[in-house]
Design goal:
Number of domains of chain A: 3
Radius of gyration of chain A: 23 Å
Distance between the termini of chain B: 26 Å
Distance between the termini of chain A: 42 Å
Helix content of chain A: 25-40%
Structural class of chain A: alpha+beta
Strand content of chain A: 25-35%
Radius of gyration of chain B: 19 Å
Oligomer: heterodimer
Shape of chain B: globular
Largest sheet of chain B: 10 strands, mixed
CATH topology of the largest domain in chain B: Peroxisomal Thiolase, Chain A, domain 1
Chain lengths: 479, 395
């Protein structure tokens, strides 16, 4: 049976209050906050976070494919899926693909994953990750909505699937709603917001109505409906038009987190899975140049609940977010303010050769004395000096600070100066040097022995490509 | 480790250095030329008597290859080599020149060093964006050493005030030296209140960016009798280098230096040099030492690794006056890197010039009373390369 075996999510640590946007531009104040990624984050790094959350407790080597969906791909030639798969330490004999250019890319990727698993006996599971970091033009209405986040669903064909995928239905609609020209536009444009709303209502209801009809279901048979929405008023209208009973249409996202784009239906679904009703049906729907509706069936309520306890998911991240006090900091986060950005020399060759160390996070274990060390460029043991006795070993993504400095001379994009540079002893062995991101008041909060976890971030854009590496941060929700 | 060694096989017969500082109106060629001409004058020889040269330069922008000597000094195409070994570059140039005369391959050799940092601007050492791996973090120099300070505070209970005392002592010494970059004493309060560079190291915990050059002329002792310093040439007792790792933050717990409270390169180089020189009690047998104080924490830890005091006791000994110029063992009587700055390739040669003059009783700043045996020490990179030279008065 094909369905969802696991899920994960990622929300950046910072929330921007809509009030600060309103004040900046003297707009009518809109309540709530929205999630904003830092300048060292993008769709790819957030996808890694969601992927790690989703694969917690699963062997990444057991997954047969990775689909990555985003309207904010970091490259337009060169995919992200293969890089994300490497960082997640997945095998190389897998399928990878990017789905892009439409906000329904996430739900579309899920339907394609189902088809692929059905059609190919060698492919039993595909990790589908959606992430977006859509930058709104400052002082436009988009600024109240657009937010950043990522979510992942592990689609698999297994006997004991807790949430099965029963059916899907899609429509394609060529409408010039919001767009961004690939060659010219930095920000999203629109011709007429009222027409955008009309396209949205027509398409999202069409697919949900049709999937109910195809499966002989009535609106009251649906336990939860997780459909994309870009504003809460439209969401309410859809719920009414669909005649969903109260509490069925999932609307937990916009007020605090905002319109996260492509991963939104996944996140709404993950939110709904917190209290799954036994044997209930769930609809997940995405919108953008058409729409997809996917019908799911809760097969094992307890397994789903256990899953929720073992990962950060949507709620775990939500709980550990911090509200920014300063709108200008947000402009800096988004690299909207023009300023010199830190670059270092880089080499695509070096990074390719060192992928095991820099992406997959492997170290070396000396077969002679057992000492674990990093990076894997070494050939002779630091401890016993034995030559060529190393075996690769996967390192932990958690550890404790052995020593550190707070560097005022550091380059790169960080929330605040000074930047902690930390010598970290990883759980289970390996000593590494990592810069720390997402730390407030480092003078007070960074200490010897402090627990940290690793996060995959953009370091710089040397040689005119994206240079990603691991940083550390205080454990989310534990500072 | 040391086989035959160079003990008593090399004599310093002349040396000098330029003024150190922000020398905007001079380039590296001017600096090298001035140091060289003064050293020639001190030796009382002409440049054609020099058989071969070694020059310490760290940065590519100061100059590439041994032709740096040829271009400015016009040595008629004689052998010349540029040496790079981090902050030990200058002292390693001296080491190579020492080997050359000791072996008999040459009679008279030039060891010199120069660095022109200020042409790159004065806000921290340049080049960290282009060195090394594109992804692995490359901390600034203060960041590297402050990780040792953090750990030493934790292990030894040292404080910012203990670090400040190093700066106060060295600036006090430097105030007396006509060639120092900085010539004003500072207070402990000023040192402790200075802006942070890499916490816990503040501005006065760090040496400055400076320009400068120094040069020494070497020969064998039996030839030294025929030069100007026949009566007071200085003998080389030992010269040792030890290399640790470029990446001390990757040394697994239990490995050398993994404690971040001592420098294995200093410890080893010191031991090699003491063995070669036959020194068994460094604190008693050495009268003065120029010890690498790129950062205040560096001097404290180096003093321990050079066996001038017990582990964990350097701050206390400093407070008690052990390391003052008239104390039990004078550490950085010149004012050190704190007062001279650190034009990297030149620093080793500057220290050797300083200690040579101390042993000859003609120190330009604070003369250490009755100095007979002296030590010079550099520690460069990420605690990576250490060079130790021991000098003494001629027999």
């Amino acid at each position: 049976m094909i369905g969802i075996k696991s899920y994960g999510a990622y929300l950046p640590k910072y929330l921007l209050p809509r009030e600060s946007i309103g004040k900046a531009w003297e707009f009518p104040i809109v309540p709530g906050t929205k999630a904003v990624a830092m300048a060292d984050e993008d769709s790819l790094t957030m996808a890694v976070e969601a992927g790690l959350d989703c694969l917690a407790g699963n062997d990444p080597k057991s997954v047969d494919g990775l689909f990555f969906a985003s309207t904010t791909q970091v490259y337009s030639e060169k995919d992200s899926a293969s890089l994300i798969a490497a960082v997640l330490d997945m095998r190389e004999d897998i399928i990878t693909a990017d789905f892009t250019d439409s906000l329904k890319a996430g739900t579309t990727a899920v339907t394609r994953a189902v088809d692929t698993i059905k059609a190919n006996k060698d492919i039993k599971s595909i990790l589908v990750i959606a992430a977006d970091t859509r930058t709104p033009e400052p002082s436009t209405m988009w600024e109240y909505g657009f937010a950043d986040g990522a979510a992942a669903l592990l689609i698999a064909d297994e006997d004991n699937i807790p949430l099965s995928i029963e059916d899907y239905y899609s429509v394609s609609a060529n409408v010039t709603g919001p767009w961004k020209r690939a060659d010219k536009d930095k920000f999203i444009r629109t011709f007429e917001p009222k027409m955008d709303a009309k396209f949205y209502i027509e398409n999202i209801t069409k697919v949900m109505v049709e999937i109910l009809k195809r499966n002989n279901l009535k609106p009251e048979d649906i336990g939860a409906a997780a459909y994309y929405y870009s504003n809460p008023r439209l969401h309410g209208r859809i719920a009414k038009m669909m005649k969903y009973p109260g509490g069925v249409a999932q609307n937990s996202l916009f007020f605090q987190v905002g319109d996260v784009g492509t991963p939104m239906p996944f996140m709404l679904l993950i939110g709904a899975l917190r209290r799954p009703k036994d044997d209930s049906k769930i609809i997940m729907a995405g919108f953008g140049d058409g729409a997809d509706a996917i019908l799911l069936h809760v097969r094992d309520r307890n397994a789903l609940r256990d899953l929720g306890k073992s990962r950060m998911g949507f709620l775990g991240h939500q709980k550990s977010m911090i509200t920014l006090k300063n709108y200008n900091k947000f402009l800096d986060f988004k690299e909207i303010v023009e300023k010199d950005r830190y670059t270092r020399k880089s080499s695509a060759v070096t990074i390719w050769r060192d992928a095991a160390s820099v992406y997959r996070w492997y170290g070396l274990k000396c077969q002679n004395c057992g000492a674990i060390q990093y990076p894997d460029m070494l050939r002779s043991c630091y401890i016993c000096r034995a030559d060529d006795q190393f075996e690769r070993i996967k390192l932990s993504l958690k550890g404790s600070i052995f020593t550190f400095t707070l560097d005022h001379l550091v380059g790169g994009t960080y929330l605040d100066i000074p930047v902690p540079r930390c010598v970290v002893d990883l759980d289970g062995g390996g000593r590494v040097l990592l810069n720390m991101t997402e730390i407030e008041k480092p003078e007070e909060n960074v200490k010897i022995g402090m627990r940290v976890e690793l996060t995959f971030r953009k370091e710089h854009e040397g040689a005119d490509f994206k240079n990603y590496y691991w940083k550390c941060r205080p454990e989310r929700g534990k500072l | 480790m040391v086989r035959k060694g160079i003990k008593d096989k090399v004599a310093i017969i002349g040396c000098d250095m330029t003024k150190y500082g922000e020398l905007w109106d001079k380039n590296q060629y001017d600096l090298l030329f001035e140091a060289f001409q003064s050293a020639l004058k001190d030796t009382g020889i002409k440049k054609d008597e020099i058989d071969a040269s070694w020059i310490g330069i760290f940065y590519y922008f100061t100059g590439l290859s041994g032709a740096m000597v040829e271009d400015i000094l016009r040595m008629d195409g004689k052998p010349s080599t540029r040496v790079e070994n981090y902050c030990a570059s200058g002292m390693d140039a001296f080491r190579n020149a020492s080997f050359a005369v000791a072996s008999g391959a040459y009679d008279v050799a030039l060891a010199c060093g120069v660095e022109k940092l200020m042409d790159e601007g004065g806000s921290g050492l340049p080049g960290f964006k282009i060195f090394g791996h594109p992804l692995y973090p490359t901390p600034s120099a203060p960041a590297m050493f402050s990780m040792a300070a953090t750990r030493s505070f934790h292990e030894y209970g040292w404080t910012k005030e203990d670090l400040a005392r190093v700066a106060v002592k060295n600036h006090e010494n430097g105030a007396h030296h006509p060639k120092a970059h900085f010539r004003s004493p500072i207070s402990i309060e000023a040192a402790m209140k200075a802006p942070m560079i890499a916490d816990p190291l503040g501005r006065f915990d760090c040496c400055a960016m400076s320009d400068g050059a120094a040069a020494l002329i070497l020969t064998r002792p039996e030839l030294a009798e025929s030069y100007a310093h026949a009566d007071d040439y200085v003998l080389v007792k030992a010269n040792a280098i030890s290399c640790h790792t470029n990446f001390p933050w990757y040394v697994p717990p239990g490995g050398p230096g993994s404690e971040f409270t001592h420098f294995p390169a200093t410890e080893k180089a010191g031991q090699y040099a003491y063995n070669e020189a036959g020194i068994t009690n460094p604190r008693k047998e050495i009268d003065c030492a120029e010890v690498h104080d790129c950062f205040t924490i560096t001097e404290l830890l180096n003093c321990q690794d050079l066996q001038f005091c017990e582990r964990g006791k350097a701050a206390e000994e400093l407070k008690n006056g052990t390391f003052n110029y008239d104390g039990e063992i004078a550490i950085n009587p010149s004012g050190g890197l704190k007062s001279f700055g650190h034009p990297i390739g030149s620093t080793g040669c500057r220290m050797l010039t300083e200690i040579t003059k101390q042993l000859q009783g003609r120190a330009e700043g604070r003369q250490v009373p009755d100095a007979k045996v002296g030590l010079c020490h550099n520690l460069g990179g990420a605690f990576t390369v250490c060079s130790v030279t021991i000098l003494s008065q001629r027999d």
